[in-house]
Design brief:
Strand content: 15-25%
Number of helices: 5
Structural class: alpha/beta
Oligomer: single chain
Low-confidence stretches: none
Length: about 210
């Protein structure tokens, strides 16, 4: 798509490709070091959010009062999913085999896509995400596996919010494993090591046929 800014890093054809979705202010290469730690041999695709707020790249807008613009969130999620299909075809990737790696804003849009859209991917590591829409979801996430992380002193994501999102995903049928660290809204070596342990245990780094 013409307005998509992306980056692709080739890898081994029998390894699950990683889709990198950055946090606020990041870009399409921001998560490459983490993706390389988690899945060193996998192809990697980054897609930059096309929203700009206060000079920062994002995947969706806030409202004037600081809440989430749910109409824009829906529109931008559709754009992101369409871009995923287009970029996957360009690089010979099966969208259903994608391992999504999302941080904060990028993790938020991935979880929303599962709960409220027809997202093709089945596996994700979602770091420091939050529930954007408390409405009940009719999604069927059987076959989905995800690893979620949260900081227990995070000023952005409350424990109640994180628990609510975890419940949304579980109620929809996803297999959810969660990690809570004594930390704020930043990444730690311990949580990334836990994510890698989970990913290796799932066996989803190797493509299924």
């Amino acid at each position: 798509m013409s307005d998509a800014q992306t980056a692709f890093f080739p890898g081994e054809s029998d390894k699950a490709p990683v889709l990198m979705l950055h946090g606020t202010g990041g870009d399409e290469t921001d998560l490459l070091p983490i993706a390389s730690f988690l899945a060193p041999d996998s192809p990697k695709l980054g897609i930059r959010g096309r929203i700009h707020e206060n000079g920062a790249n994002r995947y969706f807008k806030h409202t004037d009062d600081g809440g989430f613009d749910l109409d824009n969130l829906s529109t931008e999620t559709d754009w992101l999913l369409s871009t995923i299909v287009t970029e996957s075809a360009k690089h010979g990737i099966d969208p259903k085999q994608l391992l999504v790696l999302g941080f904060s804003n990028g993790a938020n849009v991935a979880a929303y896509a599962w709960l409220h859209k027809k997202a093709p991917f089945k596996t994700a590591i979602l770091l420091h995400l939050m529930m954007l829409d408390p409405q009940a979801s009719a999604a069927n996430l059987n076959g989905v596996a995800t690893f979620l992380t949260h900081g227990d002193v995070d000023p952005i994501v409350s424990s109640a919010n994180f628990t609510g999102l975890r419940r949304q995903l579980t109620d929809a049928g996803a297999a959810v494993e969660a990690y809570t660290g004594h930390q704020s809204h930043q990444l730690t070596r311990a949580e990334l090591s836990a994510a890698k342990t989970w990913l290796d245990k799932t066996g989803r780094l190797v493509l299924s046929h």
